[in-house]
Amino acid sequence: MGQTGVWYQEDFWSRLKCGARRLIPGPIRSRAGGWLRAWMPYSWQMGSAFRSAYSLLEKSQWWSEERILAYQLDRLREVVYHAGKNVPGYRLKFAEHKVGPESISALDDIRRFPCLTKEDLRNDPELYVAETIPKERLQYVTSGGTTGAPTGFYHISQYNDDLAAAFRLMMWKRIGYTPRSRALDLTASFEGGLLHHAPDGNLLWVSISALDSRRFPSYLDAIRDFRPEFIIGFPSTVTLFAQLARDFRISGVQIRGVITASEVMHQAQRRYISEVFRCRILQWYGLAEYAGFASGCEHSDEYHFFPECGHVELLDAQGSPVMEEGATGEIVLTGFHNWATPFIRYRTGDRGAWGKRRCGWCGRNYPTLKEISGRIQEFLVARNGRLIPSSALNVHSGLFDQVWCYQFYQESPGKVVLNIQKKPSYEASTTESIRQHVLERLGGEVELEIRFVEEIPRTQRGKHKFIVQKLPAVGRGSPAAWPSPSGQDTYLGSMGAGRGHALVQPDMVNRER
Ligand SMILES: [Zn+2]
């Protein structure tokens, strides 16, 4: 049994490419890269890991259930062997629970292993790094930006991103997307030129902060000229865009598909977006950990989990497996390709409800989840009433490494308090960097106050809330089609069907108060 997976075989050229990339200055690299990308086949632009993964996935998606289970069992043994041998944190855990590769004779034997929690990683991320991966190949990543309790871990640079790109493209192409498609990207907030063209010309970013009725009209022409075929965004940002597109009557733009992720997609949002654009919506699920990817297929909206990427379990509050169709539990993932920081029975904090073992529509023998919830979608409100979704505040940099926990708090429009619970390593100079970074994400019209607190209280269910929103819910009494997952009134209420303008009218918040 090898130490690493079948896909982790980097050739000389991939390593050379990585090294060469560091030597060329950024601007030249991006211009030359754009020019090259314009004519190079997509698979050439990517590393060898992308090509191996993609060609395997094209075949394996139609494998029989037996073949898939056999593949998963091999991968599981491999990752458990690697973790138990090369990763100090797992060595300790496995010894304590008296388990190891020999404990696995069937896939379900994974249940004998202890879970990995976000607290484990936050307490000591270095403990879960494989000793065999060369330091210069380790890429530090943080996730959990929207939970306010960042978790740090490592990828193998280039390799893990290449794999993620393969899974992403496999999902996206189910609704007709190709790397050559012209797509509008609504996933980033940036100041200074609220439009940004990718160098190869087939991606146009519109800043989330430009999605209000005041700024949007100045970008209408550019969007129309670009003629987007696909929209990539969060459910909340695509809904905002759909409302603006309808209000400002963007004509001559034929959207073929909408691709969303990172937030719960509510039925009313789905209805509204498909009503405006009259196309398929592909909602996909993926963590920065890359331990699992899932999306709908050509015909169904249920989340098809790639069995080639990892193993999915649902656990109840006591940690027992949830098995029945329709039953819900916490999503627990074992990734098959995370060689830097392995994720074995990783508790994601997200919740899902089982669908079938096989999709009756497309025939793939992929386990499906009917729904995924738990990433509670919340908003901050700018002075002009613009709603800022929590996903826009997502932080994937190491900026919050010296912070144990943080939380946004709002009582009046345009005024936001950021509460920070410091780690002992916190340096005073960090505060200014955090302020700059967060202000940029907030996108203007917001005053930010940073406060340091002893502790950030959790909800009754022990969950950390990323945003505490004290503003009264707009549109209370509007159709119940837009339930807030937490069961509380939040600004989700303002997006209720039939109140199409609530999102973009600057005086909305004040009027309701
Ligand atoms: Zn299907």
Topology overview:
Layout: H1 12-23, H2 26-39, H3 42-45, H4 48-60, H5 65-86, H6 88-97, H7 118-123, E1 138-143, E2 151-156, H8 159-172, E3 183-186, E4 195-197, E5 203-206, H9 220-226, E6 230-233, H10 235-247, E7 257-260, H11 267-277, E8 280-286, E9 293-295, E10 303-305, E11 310-315, E12 328-335, E13 346-354, E14 368-373, E15 379-381, E16 387-389, E17 403-412, E18 415-422, H12 430-442, E19 447-452, E20 467-469, H13 508-512
Parallel strand pairs: 3-5, 3-6, 6-7, 7-8, 17-20, 18-19
Antiparallel strand pairs: 1-2, 4-5, 8-9, 9-10, 10-14, 11-12, 12-13, 13-14, 15-16, 17-18
- E-strand count: 20
Query: Roughly what is the average pLDDT, rounded to an integer?
Result: 80
Percent strand: 15-25%
Number of separate domains: 2
Which ligands occur here?
Answer: zinc ion
Major β-sheet, in short?
12 strands, mixed
Q: List segments where confidence is low: pLDDT < 50 over at least 5 consecutive residues.
A: 1-7, 473-513
Outline: globular
CATH architecture of the largest domain: 3-Layer(aba) Sandwich
Spatial order of the strands forming the largest sheet: 4-5-3-6-7-8-9-10-14-13-12-11
Assembly form of the protein? single chain
Report how far the terminal alpha carbons are from each other: 65 Å
Task: Please compute the radius of gyration using only Cα atoms.
Answer: 23 Å
* Superfamily (CATH H level) name of the largest domain: ANL, N-terminal domain
Determine and state the CATH class of the largest domain. Answer: Alpha Beta
CATH topology of the largest domain: Rossmann fold
Structure class: alpha/beta
